[in-house]
## 1
Amino acid sequence: MTGGNKKNYQITAFCHRFLADYIREGSVCIDATCGNGHDTEYLCRMAGPSGKVYAFDIQKQAVQHTKERLKRAGYEERAAIYCAGHEHMAEYVREAADAIVFNFGYLPGGDHALSTRAETSLEGVRQSLDILKPGGVMSLCIYSGGDTGYEEKNALMEYLKELDPARWLVIACSYYNRKNDPPQPVFVIRL
């Protein structure tokens, strides 16, 4: 790549390009870990005025950042944002979703001691499988090493490996030539 032709190969941008094939005007989407609101804003833009986005985070700071971001973008009416863990999404979402997005790890710019954990993340993924409609997709950005360790990544990958291949397609990608525990994008498609 040369000059101004550089593409963004950050994990979230990569996942957004994949998700674009599954989200259309009127889609129902979930941002299971809204963080600073980047994915929530993307989902609101893609689902359009007739779409609906549910967003979750356990940190009040993250919920506030997301609300502010959506207000600046003019999307605040498109989203329902909850200060609740993704392991509780089934209590709030009563309709089938076209796309569900997870970013595991900690809030960028936040306290690294507060991060997602294997047990609650597995429950969030389990609930997502029930919420995801046929032909829908779940995107998982899995960070490991450093502050977050490997327990969550290993638990998620082992769980996803055992999903019924007649019902689910799991695509695990990797930044193969990157060192120092690069994030891993994973997609789960309901067949």
## 2
Amino acid sequence: MQVLDIVLNILSSGLPCALLALGIFLTYRLLDFADLTAEGSFLVGMAVSGVLIYNEVNPWLATLVSLFAGAGCGIVTGVLNRVLKIPKLLSGIITMTASMSIVLIILGAAHDIPNFFNSQLSFTNIVKGSGPQTIYSLLQPYDYQLGVFIAPWSNIIKVAIMLLVVVVAMGLIYFFFGTEYGMAIRATGMNEKMATAQGINPDIATIVGVAISNALIALAGSLYVQETKTVSTVSATGYLVVGLASILIGEAIFGKRSFKNWLISVALGSVVYFIIITIAIRLGLPTELQKLLYAILITIALCLPLLKMKLSSFKKKKDKEATL
């Protein structure tokens, strides 16, 4: 049972971050756009979803609204870069910085006017008269007085819902980027001059691509906040690194032979990342040494392709010597 709990905890952390990694992947790999908006849109997704659920809005509607809020962040970044000609890195930094104030306003909307700029919101033990508190409580009994699930299979259902959302999102990404316009966005990232010569508007294509990317990241934030039931202005700190590490680990271990394989590799990379984190925690090292262990384990994971190539070369050399 303990092993099952560990696996479920890894998946409950890794699956929302799979969407985060996929969102960063779209700009980082497909559009060649170094977008630093990610932490801002992740936090906006958390805040919008959290405040709407706090105010008893249906959680599925809250999740959908957070997705559009993240897309809005992406549109702002895209417009700053493509219309106002601000460099990509600075465009992302500007949007990320502005989003912190926006999140303070959003979080303050859940409180009284004197506390309008409250920097934290927790809806763990809110007593609801009716309706589900989060999307995870739709299929299982929930004690609104205690703020906990009372079904023994609650974690399994929660992970199943997360997995369903991730799979549907991946399917939609795969379908969209296989369409004519999706291919136009990919062509813009590969060679903008060639895309322009083919009649593609690179400005619109880039803005749409960045919007889709940040919508996915905000969706990840929505899933995450509905699990933790707490959001503050520091909740998204470090998640850009998590997304990038997931992409690199997934590519290193699972490869990128086709676009579909690439998407699956990125999603699995986030799960592997949290397996690494879990190993570090389970080893019981002091807190100040855990970051060092994270770095070592991630480095080992990223070196796996090189190790496999060396082993393959060594085996071929041995086989050749044996035939002589």
